Amino acid sequence: MSSRASASLVEAASGCYRDSGRFAWHFARGKLAGDPVFAAILAHGLLEGHARVLDLGCGQGLLAAWLLAARAGYETSGTWPQGWPAPPHLDRYTGVEINPREAARAHAAGARCDAARFSIVKADVRHVDYVEADAIVILDVLHYMDRASQESVLAKARGALAPGGRLLLRVGDAAGGPGFTVSRLVDTTVAFARHRRLMRLHCRALREWLEVLARAGFSARVVTRNRGAAFSNVLLLAQAA
After folding, report:
1. pLDDT: which is higher, 78 or 146
2. Domains 1-124 and 141-241 agree in fold
3. 141-241 belongs to which homologous superfamily?
4. Topology of 1-124 in CATH?
5. What angle do the packed helices 100-113 and 22-34 form, to 10 degrees?
6. Is 90 helix (H, G, I), strand (E, B) or coil?
């Protein structure tokens, strides 16, 4: 994506948060511009043709704002990157978020951007019922729950996917060397800021994540892999085996 198109898309998506205060707006701008997962989802067409999206641990709903802004930009501008597939046309986005402040910001963003297609459920992803979805997205969430809960959430996700559906999952790779140590420190700090308490992280090596997905009924492949001194995480695309 060109820098101009990228900046335009970031501004359009983060605009959903202008009425939610400076923190929500600046966080959206920084996260959407700085986290490569958002561009990767569009560049690789990971949600192309998947109209009903369930986002588990959605935070303030950035993925929905991003996808809606991408679709609007695709339909109305001539700056969509050559070779990139069309972004999904969302019929329904359902986000599940346990943090009440983030859930409130997500709800407000939905009201501003597209209330008819933007639904937020304030709940624990381990215990809530999942709506049927064409795609389920879990980004940087599973390591905050114990291993049994990780497997339970993945099994529930498998049961909620419509035929032909897919799971998009980003996890840390515990075999990632120094980058994983940095990632774990960042995640611990973020968890403390959100929940005001230290949380034990339950991490796995990539090989183990693939085994867990297989036990849940998925066949998975690596889409992108960030491995180095700064971070060590892997974006996986999984479908029913």
Report:
1. 146
2. yes
3. Vaccinia Virus protein VP39 (3.40.50.150)
4. Rossmann fold (3.40.50)
5. 80
6. coil
Per cent of the chain over pLDDT 90 is 70
Positive or negative, the Cα torsion across 92, 67, 26, 179?
A: positive
Q: What is the pLDDT of residues 145-186, one digit of tens each?
A: 999 999 999 999 999 999 999 999 999 888 865 555 555 555
Kindly write down the DSSP assignment for every residue of 170-211, as one continuous string: EEE-TTSTHHHHHHHHHHHHHHHHHHSS--------HHHHHH
Please provide residue 8's backbone torsions phi and psi, each rounded to the nearest 5 degrees: -65, -40
Are the beta carbons of 35 and 78 closer than 8 angstroms?
no
What's the sign of the alpha-carbon dihedral 130, 157, 203, 55? negative
Can you tell me the distance from the alpha carbon of 113 to that of 84, in angstroms, rounded to the nearest whole number?
24
- Kindly state the helix (H) or strand (E) to which residue 156 belongs, with its residue range: helix 147-160
The domain locations on the chain are: 1-124, 141-241
Q: Rounded to whole angstroms, how far apart are CA atoms 95 and 118?
A: 8
DSSP state of 145: S
Contact between residue 136 and residue 168 where contact means Cβ atoms under 8 Å apart: yes
- The 10 Å Cβ neighbour count of residue 8 is 16
